[in-house]
TrEMBL record:
This is Sec-independent protein translocase protein TatA. Part of the twin-arginine translocation (Tat) system that transports large folded proteins containing a characteristic twin-arginine motif in their signal peptide across the thylakoid membrane. Involved in delta pH-dependent protein transport required for chloroplast development, especially thylakoid membrane formation. TATC and TATB mediate precursor recognition, whereas TATA facilitates translocation. Part of the twin-arginine translocation (Tat) system that transports large folded proteins containing a characteristic twin-arginine motif in their signal peptide across membranes. TatA could form the protein-conducting channel of the Tat system. The lineage of its organism: Bacteria, Bacillati, Bacillota, Clostridia, Thermoanaerobacterales. The chain crosses the membrane at residues 6-26. The keyword Transmembrane helix applies. It comes from Carboxydothermus ferrireducens DSM 11255. Forms a complex with TatC. Coiled coil: none annotated. Belongs to the TatA/E family. The gene is tatA. It is found in: Cell membrane; Membrane. NCBIfam families: PRK14861.1 (NF011430), tatAE (TIGR01411). The keyword Transit peptide does not apply. Keywords: Cell membrane, Membrane, Protein transport, Translocation, Transmembrane, Transmembrane helix, Transport.
């Protein structure tokens, strides 16, 4: 899914986020994003289990 995103692209995204949100908000946003990804993966796994079994 994210295989086409390399280090330069990630750095650009980080700099843009830093400019938009400021350094104080980045950890909070990162945690929220991480929780969202974790929950998404968990739900996707459960759906796969329901389909296959």
């Amino acid at each position: 899914m994210f295989s086409s995103i390399g280090v330069p692209e990630l750095l650009i995204i980080l700099v843009i986020a830093l400019v938009i949100f400021g350094p104080a908000k980045l950890p909070e946003i990162g945690r929220a994003f991480g929780k969202t990804i974790k929950e998404f993966k968990k739900e996707a796994t459960e759906i796969q289990k329901e389909i296959s079994g």
